[in-house]
Amino acid sequence: MNNYQLGLIMNSCISVIGVTGVFIITSLAGMFSLGQAAYMAISAYITFVVAKMFGIPLILTAILGLAVSGLCAYIIAVPTLKLRKDYFALITMGFGEMMASIIVMLDKYTNGSIGFSRIPKVKNVFWIVVGLTVFVLFFAWALKRSRFGRMCIALKTDETAAKSFGVDTYRMKITVYVIGSVICGLAGILYGLKNRVITPDGFSWNLSAEMQIFLFFGGTNSLTGSALSAFFLKLIPETLRTVRIFGISLQEFRTVSYGLMILLVINFRPNGILGTKEFTWKGLVAFFRRLFAKKEAKK
Amino acid sequence: MTSSGLSSHQHKINMWLQLLINGICLGAVYALIAVGFAIVFSVLKFSNFAHGGMISACAFMGYFFQARFKTAPPIWVTIIVTALCGVVFALFLDMIAYKSIRKHKSPNIYYFLASLTISIIITSILNVFFSKNPLAFPMIFKTTTFSVGSLKVSKMDTMILVISVVILVALMFLINKTKIGLAMRAVAINPDTSKLMGINSSLILVMIFSIAGSLAGVSGVLLGCKYGVYPDLGQTMMVKGFIASVIGGLGSLGGAIAAAFLLGIIEMFWTFLFGSLSTPVMTFVVMLLFLFVRPQGISGKFAKEKV
Amino acid sequence: MSANDSILSCNNLCMYFGGVKAVDAFSMDVKEGVTYGIIGPNGAGKTTIYNVFTRIYAQTSGTISFCGQCIDSKDQVAVARMGMSRTFQNIRLFSGLSVLDNVKVALDYSGKYTIAEAILHLPRRQKAEKEIAQKAMDTLKLLKLDQYAYHSATSLPYGIQRRVEIARALVSQPKVLLLDEPAAGLNPEEVLQLVDFLKEIKSLYPKLALLVIEHRMDLVMNLCDYLYVQNFGRTIAQGVPAEIQTNPVVLSAYLGEEE
Fold first, then answer.
1. Chain B positions in Cβ-Cβ contact with residue A263 (cut-off 8 Å)
2. Domain A3-298: top CATH class
C-alpha cells in the first residue's frame, strides 16, 4: 500500500476512535453530546503546543492532554447532568463553540485560525493508530458487557426505574461522559499526529455532528455497527474524490449524502442499520447458512 | 475646566447609552431566534437544531427573491415573502423528518438526530454552492445612522428592533390571549389530554412549525441585512439563541425573550470592554454559572422530565 | 407487637401537588413477613404513596422511617440500596436488555469490580460477573422464568413481563417489595396465575414485607393480611380483609351510596 492509502485507513481509524467515544456517551448512556470535537481539540492542542513550548516528550503531554479533556468533561457534566437531557445537548454544543474561540484567542500559542503545524514527525504512526483503534474498541466492548454497561443501558431506557434499583444515575453519567470525552481526546491527538497540522476549523461543530451521524447510521446500540459505519463512511467519500457531478467533486456532497442517508434511516429503519444487534462471526456464519439454505430450497 | 470635565463626563454617559441601545438591538435579534427555537421546544419538547439551518436557508431565499427584481422591492415585501417561504419550508421539513418519529413514537433522541441532520444538510448544500463569495442585501437606507441628541443610532438596528418587537408582541398576544394560543399551551402541557378535550393536536403542530418557520424567515432576512448572507449565518447565530433560551428556562417564551435582551446587552458591553474574541467564552460561562445558581432559568418554570 | 419489628413506617404523611392533596395524613406500619394491601379507586393517591416511599417525590410533611432510620432526606438511590424495591404500574423493563440482563441490573450497583477492571476485562471482573449471573439465574429459576432468560424483555407477553419485573425487584433480596397494580392489563386467567405466583413468592421469601396496590377487591382479599383503604388521599378504613369486606364506609365508597 502506498502512503496515500495508509493515510486513508488512518483517517478511518481515527474516525472509529472518535465515534467509539461518542458511542459510550450516546448509545450507552443516552446523552446527546454535540461538543465531542471540542475534546479532540483540547487534547490535540495541549499535547502538541505544550510539547513544543517546553520540549517535553509527546507521550507525557498526550497524557496531560487527555487528563485536561477529562477534567473539562467533568466540569461541564456536574451542573448539566442534573438537568433534563435537552440542556446537555445545548450546553455541550455551546462548549464546542467556546473552545473554537478560545483556540483563536490564544493565538500566541496556538497560531490562531491558521493552525498549529509544528508537530514532530513520529515513526510508525500507522501502527500506533491501528493499535490504539483496536484497544479502544476492545475497551468499549468490555465496558458495554460489564455491569457498568448494563447500568448505562438501563438508565438510558428508564432513568427513574434504574434509580429504583440502586443505580446512581447521576454519577454513572458523569463517569461515562468523562471516559467518552477522553477517548475523543485520543482521537484528536492521533488526528494531529497523522495530519501534522491542527486548526480550530478542523474540530468544528460539523465534526461533532458528523460523529453522531456515523453512530446512528450504524445502529443505535451496536458498537460494531457504529464502528463499521464510522470506518466506511469516512473511507468511501475519499475514494470518490475524483468523481464529479456538475463540475463539483462528489466529495463536497459528502455531508449532504450522510444527511440524506440518516433521513432515510429514520424514516425506514428507525433503529439504524444494525439496530441493537452486534455484528459477530457467529451471526455472520448463521446469516450465510440461512442464505444458502434458501438457495438450496429454491433448487 | 468644569465645562471640559462635564463634557467628558457627558461623553462617557453617552457612550454607555450608545452601548445599551446597541445591546438592545442585538438582543432583539437574539430574541427572534430564541423564540423560534423555544416555541418548538415548549410543545414538542425537543431542541430544534434545524432552526439555524432554516435561518440560513431563509436568508438565501430572501436574497434571491429580492435579486429577481431590477429595483429591490421594499424590505417588508421581502420579509413577508420569506416568512411564507419559511412556513412552507418548515412544514416540508416536518414531513420528511419528524413525522415518522412521531408515528413510531421513537425516543426523544431521534428528534435531536433528525433536526441535527436537517441543519447539516441545509448548511452543507449551501456551502457547496455559495461558500465562495458572501452575498449582501442591497442598502435599504441612504445614510446608515440618525442622531438622537448626541447619540448616533443605526437605522438598520432600529428597523430590526422595531420589526422584532412588533413580531414578538404579536406572538405573545397570539399565545396568551387567543383561543389558538390556549390550545397550544394545552398541548404543550399534555398532548394526550388535550386530544381528549377535542383539541386537534396535529393542527396545533402545523401551527407551531408555521410560527417557527416564519420566525426563521424573518430573522433570516434581518440577519442577512445586518451581517450579510452566508451559509453558516444561521448556525453561528443559533448558538446565541440556544444560550438565551437555556438562561431563560427551556420552553418558556417570556424567559427566552428576557434572556435574549439581557444577553445582547451584556455582549455589547463585554465586547466594548474586552474585545469580541472572548465573547463566546463569556456567554458560555454566563450560561454555566446561571445553571449553577438558578437551574430553573429566569422564568422559574423548570422543565422537568416526567417521572 | 412492639414498634421494633416494623421495617417501614410512616406517620402523618402528606403529599400535596399545588392544591391537590394526593396523600393526606397517611400512617402505616409495615412488619416483616406480612402482606399489606392498599386499595382504593383511581386517583386515591396510592401510587403517590409509593413514589414518596421510594423518594421519587419528597413529601410535603410527615416522616418515614425505614430499617430504623429516618429516610426523609435520603434520595431514591440510597433508599433502593437499603432494601426497598418496587415494580411499576405500567411495566418498566429496560427495553435494550434481555430478561437476564434486566434482572442483573438490580444487582449491578453492588458489583465487586471497578470501572477500570471492566474496561480492561481483568479476571476479577470475570469472577464477579459470574457471581452476578449466577444470582440472577437462580432467582429466575426459583420463579420459573429461566426459559425466558435470553429473550428480549419487552417482546414477551404482558403476563410474563410482570413476573420478570417482580423477579428483577426480588433478586437483590429486598426487605420491602412494593407492587404497583400487578394485575393491571392482565386477562382473567393471567390474574389467577399472578395470585398463585405471588403466594409462592410469599412462601419463598418468608421475611419479605409485601405491599400491594390494587383496586380489584378479589385479588387483595385473597392475598393480603392487612388492608388500608384510600379515597381522595385519605385512609377511610383499615383492618384485616374480613373486616374491610363488610365495612359500610368502604362499601359506600366503592359501590356508591345505597338509595
1. 96-97, 114, 117-118, 121
2. mainly alpha
Domain edges within chain B: 25-231
Q: What is the pLDDT of residue C231?
A: 87
Indicate the residue type of B111: Y
Residue B248: its chain A contacts at CB < 8 A?
none
The tens digit of pLDDT for each residue in B72-115 reads 788 888 999 999 999 999 999 998 888 888 887 777 778 888 88
Q: Which CATH architecture has domain C3-255?
A: 3-Layer(aba) Sandwich (3.40)
Give the pTM: 0.88
pLDDT, residue C258, reads 46
Structural domain boundaries in chain C? 3-255
* CB nearest to C132's CB, from A142, A143, A147: A147
pLDDT digits (tens, 9 = 90+) for C139-158: 999 888 999 999 988 888 88
Q: Rounded to a whole number, what is the distance in Å from the CA of B278 to chain A's nearest CA? A: 7
Non-local (6+) Cβ contacts of B176 within 8 A are none
Helix (H, G, I), strand (E, B) or coil at B84: helix
Share of chain B above pLDDT 70, in %: 94
Confidence of residue A295 (pLDDT cuts 50, 70, 90): low
Cell numbers representing residue A253 in the block? 456532497
Show Cβ contacts of residue C11 under 8 Å, excluding neighbours closer than 6 positions. Answer: C27, C62, C63, C64
Helix, strand or coil, per DSSP, at residue C33: coil
Under the banding of pLDDT at 50, 70 and 90, the label for residue C131 is: very high
Give the position of cell 392475598.
C223
User: Which ipTM score applies to this complex?
Assistant: 0.87
Given an 8 Å threshold on Cβ–Cβ distance, is C110 in contact with A166?
yes
Confidence of residue C179 (pLDDT cuts 50, 70, 90): very high
CB-nearest partner of A166 from C96, C101, C109: C109
DSSP H helices, C54-178, are 76-82, 99-108, 115-120, 123-142, 158-170
Q: How far is CA C44 from the centre of its chain?
A: 17
User: Per-domain residue ranges for chain A?
Assistant: 3-298
Which of A147, A148, A158 is facing C94, going by the closest CB pair?
Answer: A158
Q: Which chain B residue's Cα is nearest to C56? A: B307
- Range scoring the smallest mean pLDDT among A144-158, A234-248, B175-189: A234-248
B307 CB near a chain C CB, below 8 Å?
Answer: yes
Residues of C in contact with A150 (CB under 8 A): 97, 101, 104-105, 108
